[in-house]
Amino acid sequence: MNRNHVVNTNEFSFWYGNFQALNKLTFNISSYKITALIGPSGCGKSTFLKCLNRMNERGGEVSHEGSIQVFGEDIYHPIVALPELRKQVGMVFQKPNPLPLSIYDNLVFGAKTHIKNVKSSELDHMVESSLKRVGMWEDLKNQLHRSALSLSLEKQQRLCIARLLPLKPKLLLLDEPCSALDPAGIEAIEILIKDLKKDYSIIIVTHSMNQAKRVSDETIFMYMGEVVEMGQTEELFTSPKQQKTAAYIDGRFG
Amino acid sequence: MFRPSNHLILKEIKEKKLKNLLSTVTFFLFLPALIIMLWLFVKGSSALSLDFLFMDPIEGMTAGGIFPTIVGTFWLVIISVLVACPLGVIAAIYLSEYAKDNTLTRIIRLAILNLAGVPSIVHALFGLGAFVLFLKMGTSILAASLTLSVMNLPVIITSTLESLKAVPQSYREASWNVGASRLQTIRHIVLPNSIPGILTGVVFSVGRSAGETAAILFTGVAFYLPFLPQSVFDQCMSLSMHLFTISTQVVGVPDAYPYATALVLILLILSMNSLAVALRSYFRTRRKW
Question: Does a structural domain hold residue B124?
């Protein structure tokens, strides 16, 4: 495995029942970068993202061919334990989904499920450091036992990012994390994402080409379950090599 | 300029009429329940006393009280719930949280729905064949309770399924996503959020089995027993059966007795249903979020 790559896919195809959602994807994703997945609805970008921590295996039959390696390990190998995979590859969803618990309990929920008898001082520390990392400690340190559902959407989304951090993930998957937010919220989250790049590899699915341009280092353009083009974000947007890419980023379809 | 046109006025009159119709219908639906209760109370309250509740029936059931029937009803209800509740909840958890949506599970779901539609007298025959004869339990509290639990299972499974489905999928995803296993997710997220609904289903099914007559007719209930049941292998008397017996099978029962018995039965079921409602609201308020 190449140290600079966090994800290597090899001829990876994926089916929901009889419907083929992904067709022979072969590419690498760099570590400690922000990689944007763009493409029209139904192009398979969200499916691919969910494959990375295997969140799409519920509700109906799915099947795959080929392989995806994360940190050099085949995540579809029978020995892979899903809880362990998801701990290291965390996902943030389109709609903020804090658990119906307090802010504090949201942040320690993951740690509590993995470690028996964690000391409460350790939990406190986890809460403080992860809230600091997403820039909400000062705001919330006196109301940690408030319901997480009472926060604004933007703060809920920050909390959803923060609660992944105590698990020490290596790869963060963001599935259109800003689509439920207002412009100020979007800006705040984007700043946070760029800052998180120092410590984590990030893959972000987005509908907004402007967002891809603003936050990502590399961009992958998908269409009908295939990768049409990928490369440095700037290059891809300024001088796309494929007709389809050019048409999409010009807004001519999708 | 903003005055209503004739057309609009007509429309509003129509709307008012419709609203009145709906409220009248609703009221008349409530009326029978009220009348039944009042009627039972008027006719039966003269017989109602502590003696009536706590004495054995005497003189060929034409005097005394209904104590053994109350005891018997409690035996039947409690054992049937103890059996049906864990089975039903476990089955519902499996169907909702683990089972994939395929032909087999669709057949299981259909079977459960159909089981709910089976008449209770058919359940009674099944209980007679399966529990009394094949498993050699004899006519006993155990056989009758098991028959009741088979009858209640579809109700409990369906109501539990509904409450599990009401927990947003996004909660489960959030929990899986921080690496919680399926079981941990069920224990810490899904069940705490669906307990009120599950309990309601269970307690309503309790009310149902308290009033059930046919299903226990051949399987464990006697017309008259001179002693209280000592174990689950004894037979027992039950309120519903006793009501049938003294209304139609025994000569010389005072007029008020059947009404008083019915009143006790209904009050028992009503109190269980109110318990369900109380429990539900208790859990709702206790949940801080």
Answer: yes
Topology of domain A5-249 in CATH is Rossmann fold (3.40.50)
pLDDT in tens, B15-45: 999 999 999 999 888 888 889 989 999 988 8
Rounded to two decimals, the pTM is 0.81
Residue B12, in any domain of the structure: no
CATH number where B171 lies: 1.10.3720.10
Strands (E), chain A: 5-16, 19-30, 34-38, 62-70, 73-74, 89-92, 171-175, 201-205, 218-223, 226-232
Host domain of residue B258: 50-286
Phi, psi at A64, each rounded to 5° = -145, 165
Answer whether B287 sits within 8 Å of A82, measured CB to CB: no
- Domain assignment of residue B259, yes or no: yes
CB contact under 8 A, A113 and B188: yes
CA atoms of A24 and A159, how far apart (whole Å):
35
CB spacing of B180 vs A102 below 8 angstroms: no
Mean pLDDT over each residue of chain A, to the nearest integer: 89
B13 part of a folded domain: no
Model confidence at A37, pLDDT cuts 50, 70, 90, reads very high
B227 phi/psi in degrees, rounded to 5: -135, 160
A62 touches chain B (CB under 8 A): no
Per-residue confidence (pLDDT) for residue B223, from 0 to 100: 82
Interface check A163 vs B, CB under 8 A: yes
User: Is the complex ipTM higher than 0.90?
Assistant: no
Domains of chain A by residue range: 5-249
Q: Which residues in chain A are closer than 8 Å to B173, comparing Cβ atoms?
A: 55, 93, 97
Q: Which of A59, A109, A147 sits opposite B289 (nearest CB)?
A: A147
Chain B environment of A151 (Cβ under 8 Å): none
Average pLDDT over residues A93-112: 91
Domains of chain B: total: 1
> Is A109's CB within 8 Å of B180's CB?
yes
Rounded to whole angstroms, how far apart are CA atoms A177 and A164? 14
